[in-house]
Protein backbone atom coordinates (compact mmCIF):
# COMPACT_ATOMS: atom_id res chain seq x y z
CA UNK A 1 0.00 0.00 0.00
CA UNK A 2 1.30 3.42 -0.99
CA UNK A 3 0.76 5.29 2.29
CA UNK A 4 2.35 8.52 1.05
CA UNK A 5 0.14 8.65 -2.01
CA UNK A 6 -2.98 8.06 0.09
CA UNK A 7 -1.96 10.72 2.63
CA UNK A 8 -1.12 13.22 -0.11
CA UNK A 9 -4.36 12.61 -1.99
CA UNK A 10 -6.30 13.01 1.26
CA UNK A 11 -4.73 16.41 1.91
CA UNK A 12 -5.33 17.49 -1.70
CA UNK A 13 -8.98 16.40 -1.61
CA UNK A 14 -9.54 18.26 1.67
CA UNK A 15 -8.04 21.43 0.18
CA UNK A 16 -10.18 21.15 -2.96
CA UNK A 17 -13.37 20.48 -1.00
CA UNK A 18 -12.66 23.38 1.39
CA UNK A 19 -11.99 25.77 -1.50
CA UNK A 20 -14.97 24.73 -3.64
CA UNK A 21 -17.51 24.36 -0.85
CA UNK A 22 -16.29 27.26 1.31
CA UNK A 23 -19.62 29.19 1.17
CA UNK A 24 -21.42 26.12 2.57
CA UNK A 25 -18.74 24.82 4.94
CA UNK A 26 -17.81 28.11 6.63
CA UNK A 27 -20.09 28.75 9.64
CA UNK A 28 -19.70 32.56 9.37
CA UNK A 29 -18.84 35.25 6.86
CA UNK A 30 -15.02 35.44 7.03
CA UNK A 31 -15.05 39.23 6.73
CA UNK A 32 -17.73 39.99 9.33
CA UNK A 33 -16.28 41.82 12.32
CA UNK A 34 -17.62 41.75 15.86
CA UNK A 35 -15.83 43.85 18.47
CA UNK A 36 -17.79 42.04 21.19
CA UNK A 37 -16.11 38.76 20.18
CA UNK A 38 -12.48 39.88 19.94
CA UNK A 39 -9.79 37.23 20.54
CA UNK A 40 -12.17 34.55 21.75
CA UNK A 41 -10.32 31.28 22.50
CA UNK A 42 -11.30 27.98 20.85
CA UNK A 43 -14.60 26.52 21.99
CA UNK A 44 -12.99 23.86 24.21
CA UNK A 45 -10.91 26.36 26.21
CA UNK A 46 -12.14 28.51 29.11
CA UNK A 47 -13.98 31.54 27.77
CA UNK A 48 -14.61 29.95 24.39
CA UNK A 49 -17.86 30.16 22.45
CA UNK A 50 -19.43 27.16 20.70
CA UNK A 51 -20.36 29.43 17.78
CA UNK A 52 -16.66 30.02 17.08
CA UNK A 53 -15.08 26.58 17.10
CA UNK A 54 -11.47 27.73 16.61
CA UNK A 55 -11.91 31.12 18.23
CA UNK A 56 -11.72 34.61 16.71
CA UNK A 57 -9.07 37.13 15.72
CA UNK A 58 -8.46 40.68 16.91
CA UNK A 59 -11.47 41.97 14.97
CA UNK A 60 -13.82 39.25 16.12
CA UNK A 61 -13.77 37.37 12.81
CA UNK A 62 -14.29 33.62 12.91
CA UNK A 63 -10.96 31.85 12.43
CA UNK A 64 -12.42 28.60 11.11
CA UNK A 65 -14.32 30.45 8.37
CA UNK A 66 -11.24 32.45 7.41
CA UNK A 67 -9.09 29.31 7.23
CA UNK A 68 -11.65 27.59 5.00
CA UNK A 69 -11.88 30.56 2.64
CA UNK A 70 -8.09 30.86 2.68
CA UNK A 71 -7.94 27.55 0.81
CA UNK A 72 -9.31 29.29 -2.31
CA UNK A 73 -6.33 31.57 -3.13
CA UNK A 74 -3.94 28.84 -1.93
CA UNK A 75 -5.48 26.31 -4.33
CA UNK A 76 -5.48 28.80 -7.21
CA UNK A 77 -1.81 29.73 -6.94
CA UNK A 78 -0.90 26.13 -6.15
CA UNK A 79 -2.40 24.66 -9.30
CA UNK A 80 -1.87 27.50 -11.76
CA UNK A 81 1.54 28.60 -10.50
CA UNK A 82 2.99 25.11 -10.07
CA UNK A 83 1.57 23.87 -13.38
CA UNK A 84 2.78 26.79 -15.49
CA UNK A 85 6.21 27.00 -13.84
CA UNK A 86 6.60 23.23 -14.20
CA UNK A 87 5.57 23.26 -17.86
CA UNK A 88 7.98 26.08 -18.66
CA UNK A 89 10.84 24.40 -16.82
CA UNK A 90 10.19 20.98 -18.36
CA UNK A 91 9.98 22.32 -21.93
CA UNK A 92 13.17 24.37 -21.62
CA UNK A 93 14.95 21.53 -19.78
CA UNK A 94 14.00 19.08 -22.54
CA UNK A 95 15.26 21.46 -25.24
CA UNK A 96 18.53 22.16 -23.42
CA UNK A 97 19.23 18.54 -22.53
CA UNK A 98 18.17 16.87 -25.77
CA UNK A 99 19.48 19.29 -28.37
CA UNK A 100 22.52 20.61 -26.47
CA UNK A 101 24.85 23.02 -28.27
CA UNK A 102 24.08 26.70 -28.29
CA UNK A 103 20.49 26.11 -27.13
CA UNK A 104 21.78 24.40 -24.01
CA UNK A 105 24.32 27.19 -23.43
CA UNK A 106 21.73 29.99 -23.76
CA UNK A 107 19.10 28.31 -21.56
CA UNK A 108 21.71 27.37 -18.93
CA UNK A 109 22.98 30.95 -18.74
CA UNK A 110 19.42 32.26 -18.31
CA UNK A 111 18.87 29.76 -15.52
CA UNK A 112 22.12 30.88 -13.86
CA UNK A 113 21.00 34.51 -14.00
CA UNK A 114 17.62 33.79 -12.41
CA UNK A 115 19.11 31.52 -9.74
CA UNK A 116 21.71 34.14 -8.80
CA UNK A 117 18.94 36.16 -7.11
CA UNK A 118 17.36 35.04 -3.82
CA UNK A 119 13.98 33.60 -4.91
CA UNK A 120 11.80 35.42 -2.39
CA UNK A 121 13.58 38.73 -2.95
CA UNK A 122 12.95 38.36 -6.69
CA UNK A 123 9.28 37.55 -6.03
CA UNK A 124 8.81 40.54 -3.70
CA UNK A 125 10.48 42.93 -6.15
CA UNK A 126 8.35 41.62 -9.02
CA UNK A 127 5.08 41.94 -7.11
CA UNK A 128 6.09 45.38 -5.84
CA UNK A 129 6.66 46.53 -9.45
CA UNK A 130 3.60 44.88 -10.99
CA UNK A 131 1.29 45.60 -8.08
CA UNK A 132 -0.40 43.39 -5.49
CA UNK A 133 -2.88 40.76 -6.57
CA UNK A 134 -3.28 37.04 -7.19
CA UNK A 135 -2.10 37.42 -10.81
CA UNK A 136 1.15 39.02 -9.67
CA UNK A 137 1.69 36.27 -7.10
CA UNK A 138 1.20 33.56 -9.74
CA UNK A 139 3.62 35.36 -12.07
CA UNK A 140 6.19 35.51 -9.28
CA UNK A 141 5.77 31.80 -8.56
CA UNK A 142 6.33 30.97 -12.23
CA UNK A 143 9.45 33.12 -12.50
CA UNK A 144 11.11 31.75 -9.37
CA UNK A 145 10.01 28.14 -9.87
CA UNK A 146 10.78 27.21 -13.48
CA UNK A 147 14.56 27.24 -13.02
CA UNK A 148 14.52 24.31 -10.57
CA UNK A 149 12.49 22.15 -12.93
CA UNK A 150 14.58 23.20 -15.92
CA UNK A 151 17.91 22.32 -14.31
CA UNK A 152 16.75 18.95 -12.97
CA UNK A 153 15.04 17.92 -16.21
CA UNK A 154 18.06 18.98 -18.27
CA UNK A 155 20.36 16.79 -16.18
CA UNK A 156 18.04 13.81 -16.45
CA UNK A 157 17.62 14.23 -20.21
CA UNK A 158 21.39 14.45 -20.69
CA UNK A 159 21.65 10.98 -19.12
CA UNK A 160 18.62 9.52 -20.93
CA UNK A 161 19.66 10.60 -24.40
CA UNK A 162 22.77 8.40 -24.13
CA UNK A 163 20.77 5.28 -23.24
CA UNK A 164 20.53 2.41 -25.71
CA UNK A 165 16.79 2.74 -26.35
CA UNK A 166 17.25 6.36 -27.48
CA UNK A 167 20.27 5.43 -29.60
CA UNK A 168 18.25 2.63 -31.21
CA UNK A 169 15.38 5.00 -31.99
CA UNK A 170 17.87 7.45 -33.53
CA UNK A 171 19.38 4.69 -35.73
CA UNK A 172 15.91 3.64 -36.87
CA UNK A 173 15.28 7.19 -38.09
CA UNK A 174 12.70 8.17 -35.48
CA UNK A 175 12.07 11.91 -35.50
CA UNK A 176 13.37 14.02 -32.63
CA UNK A 177 9.87 15.02 -31.54
CA UNK A 178 8.78 11.39 -31.46
CA UNK A 179 11.87 10.42 -29.46
CA UNK A 180 11.14 13.15 -26.91
CA UNK A 181 7.45 12.22 -26.59
CA UNK A 182 7.71 8.43 -26.69
CA UNK A 183 11.18 7.70 -25.31
CA UNK A 184 12.27 10.58 -23.05
CA UNK A 185 9.07 11.87 -21.42
CA UNK A 186 7.80 8.49 -20.10
CA UNK A 187 11.10 8.02 -18.30
CA UNK A 188 10.78 11.47 -16.73
CA UNK A 189 7.42 10.72 -15.07
CA UNK A 190 8.86 9.75 -11.65
CA UNK A 191 10.98 12.93 -11.55
CA UNK A 192 8.10 15.10 -12.77
CA UNK A 193 5.78 13.65 -10.12
CA UNK A 194 8.15 14.63 -7.32
CA UNK A 195 8.75 18.06 -8.86
CA UNK A 196 5.03 18.79 -9.17
CA UNK A 197 4.37 17.92 -5.53
CA UNK A 198 7.30 20.03 -4.37
CA UNK A 199 6.33 22.98 -6.56
CA UNK A 200 2.74 22.94 -5.29
CA UNK A 201 4.05 23.09 -1.74
CA UNK A 202 6.49 25.87 -2.62
CA UNK A 203 3.67 27.80 -4.31
CA UNK A 204 1.65 27.75 -1.09
CA UNK A 205 4.65 28.92 0.94
CA UNK A 206 5.40 31.71 -1.57
CA UNK A 207 1.79 32.88 -1.57
CA UNK A 208 1.78 32.82 2.24
CA UNK A 209 4.93 34.94 2.48
CA UNK A 210 3.73 37.46 -0.11
CA UNK A 211 0.33 37.79 1.53
CA UNK A 212 2.01 38.07 4.93
CA UNK A 213 3.88 41.17 3.76
CA UNK A 214 0.73 42.55 2.12
CA UNK A 215 1.36 41.82 -1.57
CA UNK A 216 -1.62 39.55 -2.17
CA UNK A 217 -4.55 41.94 -2.11
CA UNK A 218 -7.84 40.12 -2.23
CA UNK A 219 -11.35 40.33 -0.83
CA UNK A 220 -10.84 36.75 0.35
CA UNK A 221 -8.65 36.11 3.40
CA UNK A 222 -5.37 34.28 2.85
CA UNK A 223 -3.45 32.16 5.32
CA UNK A 224 -0.52 34.58 5.22
CA UNK A 225 -2.72 37.58 5.96
CA UNK A 226 -4.34 35.71 8.87
CA UNK A 227 -0.89 35.15 10.38
CA UNK A 228 0.07 38.79 9.76
CA UNK A 229 -3.10 40.07 11.45
CA UNK A 230 -2.57 37.78 14.44
CA UNK A 231 1.16 38.36 14.96
CA UNK A 232 0.83 41.40 17.32
CA UNK A 233 -1.49 39.37 19.57
CA UNK A 234 0.52 36.15 19.80
CA UNK A 235 0.85 36.37 23.60
CA UNK A 236 -2.83 37.17 24.07
CA UNK A 237 -4.29 34.77 21.51
CA UNK A 238 -1.79 32.13 20.39
CA UNK A 239 -4.50 30.18 18.55
CA UNK A 240 -5.04 32.95 15.99
CA UNK A 241 -1.50 32.42 14.68
CA UNK A 242 -1.08 28.72 15.48
CA UNK A 243 -3.96 27.35 13.42
CA UNK A 244 -3.08 28.92 10.05
CA UNK A 245 0.56 27.91 10.61
CA UNK A 246 -0.54 24.33 11.30
CA UNK A 247 -2.77 24.30 8.20
CA UNK A 248 0.12 25.48 6.01
CA UNK A 249 2.45 22.83 7.45
CA UNK A 250 -0.08 20.04 6.83
CA UNK A 251 -0.77 21.26 3.28
CA UNK A 252 2.91 21.47 2.32
CA UNK A 253 3.85 18.13 3.91
CA UNK A 254 0.82 16.48 2.32
CA UNK A 255 1.67 17.78 -1.15
CA UNK A 256 5.28 16.68 -0.76
CA UNK A 257 4.03 13.22 0.24
CA UNK A 258 1.75 13.25 -2.82
CA UNK A 259 4.70 13.89 -5.12
CA UNK A 260 6.75 11.15 -3.50
CA UNK A 261 3.79 8.77 -3.64
CA UNK A 262 3.29 9.46 -7.33
CA UNK A 263 6.98 8.76 -7.89
CA UNK A 264 6.63 5.38 -6.24
CA UNK A 265 3.55 4.64 -8.34
CA UNK A 266 5.19 5.59 -11.66
CA UNK A 267 8.74 4.31 -11.07
CA UNK A 268 9.05 0.53 -11.70
CA UNK A 269 12.21 0.37 -9.55
CA UNK A 270 10.48 2.02 -6.59
CA UNK A 271 7.60 -0.51 -6.76
CA UNK A 272 9.92 -3.49 -6.26
Return the CATH architecture: Orthogonal Bundle
CATH class: Mainly Alpha
Please indicate the percent range of residues in DSSP E strands (runs of 2 or more). Answer: under 5%
Low-confidence stretches: none
Work out the number of β strands: 0
What's the structural domain tally? 1
CATH topology-level fold name: MetI-like fold
- Structural class computed from helices and strand pairing: mainly alpha
Q: Could you state the oligomeric state of the chains shown? A: single chain
Topology order in helix (H) and strand (E) letters: HHHHHHHHHH
Q: Could you tell me the mean pLDDT?
A: 86
Major sheet characteristics: none
Helix content: over 70%
Give me the Rg, rounded.
22 Å
Task: Give the helix tally.
Answer: 10
Supply the CATH superfamily name. MetI-like
| Ends apart, CA distance between termini | 12 Å
- Tell the overall outline: elongated
Overall description:
The protein has 272 residues and is mainly α. It has a single domain, classed as MetI-like (MetI-like fold, Orthogonal Bundle), CATH 1.10.3720. The protein contains 10 helices and no strands. The radius of gyration is 22 Å and the shape is elongated. The model has no long low-confidence stretch (mean pLDDT 86).
